[in-house]
Specification:
4-stranded mixed beta sheet, single chain, disordered N terminus, 24 helices, alpha+beta
Amino acid sequence: MIHKAYILVLVLMTSLSTWAQVGNAQGQMEIKGSVKGKENYIPISGVQVSTDKGQYTRTNGLGEFTIKASIGDMLIIEGPELETVRYRIKSGEDVDVLVEGYDGSRSEQKQKRVASSSRSARMDHQRFLDSANFYKKTDFEKSIDFIARSMEPLGSTGNKRELSSSLRTLGEIYLYHEQYDLAITNFKDALAAQESNRTKLLLGKAYVRNGNYESAISILKPLVEVKNMVPYQRVELYETLGDANKELSNLKEAQDYYQEGLLIAEKNQISPKEIDLSSKIADAFASEDRVIEAEGFYQNSLNLSKKVAPERLIQESEKVADFYNQKNRYNDEIQLRKKNLDELEQLSKSSVASVGQGISARDTVTSQRINYKIANAYIAQDKLDEAIPYLEKSIVEADKDDDLVVQKDATRKLSEVYRYKGDYTKALESYQDYVAVVDSLYVRKEQEISRAARFNREIANTQNRISSLEQERELSQSKYSLAVTEQQLYEETSKRQKWIIYSLIFGITLMALTAFLYYRSNKQQKLANNLLALKSLRTQMNPHFIFNALNSVNNFIAKSDERSANRFLSEFSVLMRSVLENSEEDFIPLVKELELLELYVKLEHSRFSDKFDYEIEVDKKIDVDAFQIPPMLLQPYIENAIWHGLRYKEEKGFLKIKVRQVTNDMLEICIEDNGIGRKKSAELKTTNQRKQKSKGMGNIQKRIQILNDMYKNRVEVSIADLNEDKTGTKVSLKLKKQ
C-alpha cells in the first residue's frame, strides 16, 4: 500500500522579483516556486500546480514551476503521492513547498508505471485498429466501435500520430462502404492531426469517387514532387491522378499519368497494377477512338492477366468484349464472351470475384450477365433465334443466383424478341414473368431502402460518438498544451547542461576525427611510398634484363653468327615490347607472363642449346585467366637457373617449369633445374662476384615484400636444393587468386 507524503512547510519568500511584478492587462503575474523533499531536498517532478481560474502546469525535472496568476487566486498543489494544498495568493512572492517523508523511490516507481502504461496504451490502440480493419468488410457497426475504442484514451495523451491513424482508418471504412462525404471529412481531420502521404492518397481517391475531380488533383499533384515514396504508393498516385483527369476529359494528361504509373509498376513487378493501368490506358485510347492503340493495351492487360489468375483474365476479357461492343464488332464480342463462359464454368463459384445480388449489385462477372450480353450482341445483328437460348439461360441462372436485376432485364428482352418475331403468345408469357420479377424487385428495393435508412442512422450515431470523442480530445489537448509550457521551461533550465555535454561530445569527436585523419594520412603516405618503391624496382629490372639480353646478342655477333643474331634480335624485340608494355603494372594476367617466359627461355635455349633442354608444363584443369602475377617476377629465377646452374654443368641439363593447382584459390609455379646447385655455384664465383649481390634477385625480394604488404600476402616464394647431394635447384612460387 502506498502512503501519501504530506506537506510540512509552505515557505513564502517575501522578497519580490522585478519580473514577478510585470502583469498583463488582467493584472496577472508569473509566480515561481518549487516542490522538494524536506529531509534531502530531492526535487519532485510531475506535481500538478493549478489555479481556480483555470491556469495549469506541472513541476519539471528540477521540481520547479512557473504559473500565471493574479492577487486573490487560489493556488492548488496536488499529486498522487502528496496531500493536496490550497493557498491564496497575496502578492508576487515565490512559493517553495517542502514535503516530509519523500525519498524519491516512489516517484521512480511511478515513472516506470506510467511508461509501462503508455506502452500498453499504444499496443491497445494498434490492436483496436487491427480489429477495425478485420471487420471493415463484414461488420460495419463493430468496425466503427473498435475505432471509437481506439480513440477513447487519446484525450488524455494527446497523441496526434495515433489520432491521425484512427481517423484515417475510419475514413477507409467509410470509403469502402461508399460514404464518401464522411470519408473525406475524416481524412481531412487525420491530415489536420498529422501530415501523411498515405492519408493524402486516400483523400484523393475519396474525392475521385465522390466526383470532386478538381479537389483530387489539387491534393495529389504536389505529391508527384515528393521523394522516396514507396513504389506501390507512387503507382496509386499516378493512377488516381489519371482517373481524375480522365473524368474531366483531359485524356492526354490521363494517359501520361497512367503511363508513368505503368512504368513504375513494371519496374517493381507490381502485377495487379500493371493489369489495371494497361486496361485504363486502353480505355482512354478507346475514348479517343484510337482503336489500334486501345487494342494493343487491352491485349497487354490480357497477357498479364493470364499470369495472375483465371478470374482476373475473365474480368479483363469482359472489358475487351465491352470495347468490341462499342465498336460494333459483334462477332468478336460474341466469340470472346463465349470463351469467357467456358472459362467461368471451369471455376467454382467461390473463386469468382463476387456474385451480384439485389438491386445494389455491381456489374460483376457472372454467367447470367455474360449470357445476357451475348444475346444483346445477336439482337444487334437481327439474329433473334440465336439470341433466345442465351436469354433463357441468363434468366435461369439469374433466378438460381437470386440476381433480380439481370433476371428482370433478360425477361423483358426475351419478351421483346418474341414480339419482334411475331410470337405474341410467348411474348405475353415472358412479359407476365417480367411483371412478376419487377414486383419482387420492388419489394426488395423497399427492404433495401429500409436497411439503408437504418444503416444511415447507425452511421450518424457512430459519427456523433466519434465527434464527441474528438471534442473531449480537444479539451484535453488544451490542458496538454498548458503542460507543454512547463516542459519548455525545463528545457531552458537544462540548456547549459546540454551545452556542456555537447561540447564534450564535440571535443571527443574532434579528437577521434583527428586521430582517424592522422592514421589515414600515414596509410596513404605508406601506400605512396610503396608505389614509388615498386616503380623504382621495376625501373631497375628493365635495364638489368636488357643488359643481360644484349650480352646474348653480343655473343652471337662475336661468333660472327649473323643469321642467329638477326633471328635473336627479332624475337628479342617482341619480348622487349611486351616487357615494356607491362612495366607500369603491378599485376598482369598469368597467361601473359607464361607467354613472356616461354619466349625468354626459347631465346636462352637458342644460345645454350648444347647446355640444356626445357619443358613448360601447365595443368589443363587450371583456369589460368583467373590468376594475375607481378610482371617479370619469374624471369630472374629462370635466368639464375640457366646462368648459374645449367651453364656450368658438364653434361646436358634440363629445365622444367610446371604450373599446378594447389587449392581453388591458389596455384604453385615450380622452376626446377638439375644444374650444379647453389653451393657449387657460389664456390665458382669470383671474389668480385661474391662482393656484389645479384641485383635481379634483390629486386625480386623487395618487390614481393612490398606487394605482399599492399595486397595481403598474395605471393609466397621458397628456394631449395632439388637433390640431397646439393645439386639442382627448385624454386616454388605460390600465387593466390585476386
